[in-house]
Amino acid sequence: MQFILSVFPILLLIYLMAKKNGLPSYIALPITGALILLIQLFYWGNSGSKISASVIASFIATLVPVTIIFAAILFNRFMEVSGSIRVIKSWLATVSPNPVAQLMIIGWAFAFMIEGASGFGTPAAIAAPLLVSLGFPAIRVCILTLIMNSVPVSFGAVGTPTWYGFSQLSAVNFSELASKTAIIHSFASLVIPVIALLFVVKWSEVKKNLVFVYLSILFCVVPYLLIAQVNDEFPSLVGGAIGMLLSVWAAQKGLGLSKDKSSSETSGTDYEAVTGKQVAKALMPFAILIGLLIVTRVQQLPFKAMMNSTAELFTVSLGFADFKLTQSLTFGLHNILGTGISDSYKLLYVPSLIPFVVTVLFCQFFYQESKGHIANIFKTSLSSVKLTYIALFGAFVMVKLMMLTPDPSNDITLSMVNVIGQVFSSSMGESWLYVASYLGAVGAFFSGSNTVSNLTFGSIQQSIAQQIGSSQTTVLALQSVGGAMGNMVCLNNIIAVASVTNCLSQEGYILKRTFIPMVIYGVIAAVVYQVFVIISPGVWA
């Protein structure tokens, strides 16, 4: 019964969103959250104060993705108003008018680099509107960017899902874990980007440009794989940066690109000639954005520690909770309703105020076209995320309640999420490694984060590895890969990319189409595992 009640809300949510004329996420998610609340109250037996505290904490937790989405919309609208998007369109046409090249440069290599610097769903939120502005259909672009933003995710945000996601586990060889994770992702990269392209352009178009597609893939993945053998922080960031530069160079040279005129949506569009100075000015906001992301995420620089400082500035009792503000301007509610449940928002570290808002406020002085429009850009961007907040609030209520640990006095000892994980793992035995990645994907689907998926299920995966006598790093690598591929179906990311491309009522449509590539990714992970067990059983088995 515990398992049935744990999975039923998920199945209901998928049905509500994916059925014909499905409900939008801002209706389906709150309904699901309310159902789980009732299950927690009447079956799991958690106290009303504990459940209420989780709901209150969700108001704070929702600020993270919503402010990122708001900031991404703000940045994209500034780029349009300032005329930068128009110049970038013309420049990309001179780099290559080929739609496959444009999709790979922006949807793959550029997003790969952004994931390495930031994570938090920002790659799709930045890349998707840029591709839409080039004339690609919005809904197809949403699907493409979600599918492509999977390979770099395990090392996103300067490796956070790996070095922090598994930080609570003991006796983990992180060097070996990073190596195995990158190997599995690298093999998947030979298939997944091609699948993503097929949602936007026809196979005949992809086939004619397949050499360039694989050049762009390898430009990112080869340095990514090599760096992962010695470091778990920089594979995606450095691999994406190298891949981006080399992909642009290859496109300019026409390497691997069809000489035929494309019949895609972007062909036949007239673009004005632009100078190098215009291009540099148009790309300046992106350069500032990426620069700020890098300097605030790299552990070797002092800014990351400063922006995450827990040194208390002051604490005020609100009666129902303690409001705390730190020197890094992190604010939050602590010990809500006396339950010990807390949540906080890192104003400076969450990629919203820095880098997006700061970049817009700084760059407005360099673009004549934007003067007098900044206030309106802020206003319209804010109004765009109202329904997004409702949807994501429902998602966080669902997630927090499903991860809620039962009271010690209860007969039930596991959270709903752990019940699902335990049933899946115990039913598979030694065959677990063939499906281990899907548990990671389930975690990402719930939480919207590869990092949280690893934090949630890492200990379960490690325990399973010990029970069945398998390599712990292999099982954890599959978990991390699963959390990354789960980004395709992660509700937070789907809502984010749908919001910035004005497709907010199409989440169910997107989810149905990203699900199969996610399943294929898991199959590839299982095959790679089996092959390497045969080749190197002493390391992988």
TrEMBL record:
It is a multi-pass membrane protein. The chain crosses the membrane at residues 28-44, 51-75, 95-114, 126-148, 182-201, 210-228, 234-251, 282-299, 347-367, 387-405, 432-452, 519-540. It is found in: Cell inner membrane; Cell membrane. It comes from the Bacteria. The keyword Transport applies. One of its GO terms (molecular function) is solute:proton symporter activity. InterPro entries: Lactate_perm. The keyword Ubl conjugation does not apply. One of its GO terms (cellular component) is plasma membrane. Keywords: Cell inner membrane, Cell membrane, Membrane, Transmembrane, Transmembrane helix, Transport. Belongs to the lactate permease family. PANTHER family: GLYCOLATE PERMEASE GLCA-RELATED, L-LACTATE PERMEASE. Uptake of L-lactate across the membrane. Can also transport D-lactate and glycolate. This is L-lactate permease.
